[in-house]
Q: What sequence folds into this?
């Protein structure tokens, strides 16, 4: 289907829905609610299409005016100037229309669950994992997102074995979903007396938060164990059996939470993470069945894939998926320059999706 045919189809569908809404202005059945939702989502898309088509018509009119030998010279000169300005603007308008027509990831608008784990590298990996966790916390604060810690298992020297948090706000998952993978760090550890550069790693997973309606979990499929919290500190550590470990028997997924003093609260948090992991697994299965060619994605999303290297001696961060290198590691680690990285990942993803769409 050509672009023009696609645009006509969308505009025609919007007109149909507008007629339905005009006849039945009050919400009714769930089917009508879905139509109303579709109508509201198509509104901005149709507005962009109309702007694009109006610009094309205006460009054609200006083309005729600037080439008309009988027109006033001053008018021709003005038309010439406006013609080139509009011609330069048209590709951007077309790109915005194409982007609006791309199939949407329904999880993009969801909140996210962030999980960070220390990988290879011992204490240094744990320290780096803690720095990554703080990086995302600062980034969330800069975007006025809510950052709620779900689980935090620290080490004696201030690192973390693993930590998780819920990040809530506008378009959280759409901004953070490309962060999943292995993050490698190269630097001289504070414990290194010889001044040698060590390489270690931490694993990041970003999952769309799932609702109960998304994933049905039956009690018979769960094994719930309680134990005493373990870690470097905290008033409730090693005093009560407040920590909770939940095993989802059909999938083998294991989730644990020990950050709260209350066993009940830890169980609720663990269930939230379990639901998100099962929902993420379901999304991966659906993506595999719909897209045999995984090259259309920015990386595979596989958490065993090394996606980024943080080289502290050189002050450099390299994202290996898009060959992006920035010499502003200090600002990246404070979250200040993270938008530059994420914007590049989003742009690359959009470019690849557009290429496959056209």
A:
């Amino acid at each position: 289907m050509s672009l023009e045919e696609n645009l006509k189809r969308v505009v025609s569908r919007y007109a149909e829905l507008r007629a339905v809404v005009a006849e039945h202005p009050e919400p009714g059945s769930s089917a009508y609610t879905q139509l109303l939702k579709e109508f509201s989502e198509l509104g901005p898309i149709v507005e962009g299409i109309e702007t694009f088509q109006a610009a094309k018509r205006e460009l054609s009119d200006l083309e005729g005016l600037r080439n008309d030998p009988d027109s006033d010279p001053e008018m021709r000169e003005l038309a010439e100037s406006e013609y080139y300005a509009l011609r330069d603007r048209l590709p951007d308008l077309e790109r915005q229309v194409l982007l609006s027509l791309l199939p949407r990831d329904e999880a993009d608008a969801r909140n996210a669950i962030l999980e960070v784990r220390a990988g290879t590298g011992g204490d240094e990996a744990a320290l780096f994992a803690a720095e990554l966790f703080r990086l995302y916390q600062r980034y969330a604060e800069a975007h006025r997102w809510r950052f709620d810690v779900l689980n935090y298992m620290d080490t004696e020297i201030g690192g973390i074995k693993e930590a998780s948090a819920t990040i809530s706000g506008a378009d959280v998952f759409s901004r953070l979903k490309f962060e999943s993978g292995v993050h490698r760090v190269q630097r001289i550890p504070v414990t290194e007396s010889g001044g040698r550069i060590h390489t270690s790693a931490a694993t990041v997973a970003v999952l769309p938060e799932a609702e109960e309606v998304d994933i049905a979990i039956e009690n018979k499929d769960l094994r719930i164990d309680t134990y005493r919290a373990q870690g470097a500190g905290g008033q409730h550590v090693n005093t009560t059996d407040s920590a909770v470990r939940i095993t989802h028997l059909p999938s083998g997924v294991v989730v644990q939470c020990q950050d709260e003093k209350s066993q009940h609260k830890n169980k609720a948090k663990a269930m939230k993470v379990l639901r998100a992991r099962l929902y993420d697994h379901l999304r991966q299965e659906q993506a595999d069945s719909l897209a045999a060619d995984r090259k259309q994605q920015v990386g595979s999303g596989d958490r065993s894939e090394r996606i980024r290297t943080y080289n502290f001696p050189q002050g450099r961060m390299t994202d290996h998926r898009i060959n992006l290198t920035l010499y502003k590691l200090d600002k990246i680690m404070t979250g200040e320059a993270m938008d530059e990285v994420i914007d590049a990942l989003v742009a690359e993803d959009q470019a690849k999706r557009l290429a496959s769409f056209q």
Remarks:
- Residues 30-66 form the longest helix (37 residues).
